[in-house]
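$ ./design --mode recover --in tokens.txt
reading tokens...
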């Protein structure tokens, strides 16, 4: 694995979390390949092989639907909050065909409208990342939450 590949993967992580922390849902969507998927699931369900997930966007059309729901359908119907994502890549291995399996730990803090900050969730991203000459994109992302019960509802992807 080359430094260039790792830099592209890290740049993808940075643009992904910047998009979410800036509430740029189109930027979040742009982090995925055209056949990309996003699943946000509790660690307990993941470990037991239970398919029940908080968010299950298993194709690009559902990723697009997530953007529409957050930006148009749900807009103004929930108490908004600010997120701050912290991510650390802990492993990366080539899978072949310009695909890489990565695991990264994450912590997401939130600040409510009153200025109170807390930990929203912690866990790990299990990713399949496509890297080519134009950069890196998520082919699949599983956000596996260690947190059993979040202190508030979750509107934005993790």
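writing sequence...
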């Amino acid at each position: 694995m080359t430094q260039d590949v790792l830099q592209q993967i890290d740049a993808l992580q940075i643009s992904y979390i910047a998009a979410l922390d800036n509430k740029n849902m189109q930027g979040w969507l742009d982090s995925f390949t055209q056949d990309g998927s996003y699943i946000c699931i509790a660690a307990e369900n993941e470990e037991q092989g239970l398919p029940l997930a908080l968010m299950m966007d298993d194709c690009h059309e559902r990723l697009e639907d997530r953007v529409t729901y957050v930006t148009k359908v749900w807009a103004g119907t929930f108490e908004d909050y600010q997120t701050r994502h912290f991510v650390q890549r802990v492993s990366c291995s080539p899978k072949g065909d310009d695909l890489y399996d990565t695991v990264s730990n994450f912590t997401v803090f939130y600040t409510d409208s009153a200025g109170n900050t807390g930990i929203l969730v912690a866990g790990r991203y299990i990713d399949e990342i496509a890297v080519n000459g134009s950069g890196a994109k998520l082919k699949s992302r599983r956000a596996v939450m260690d947190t059993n019960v979040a202190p508030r509802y979750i509107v934005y992807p993790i």
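exit 0
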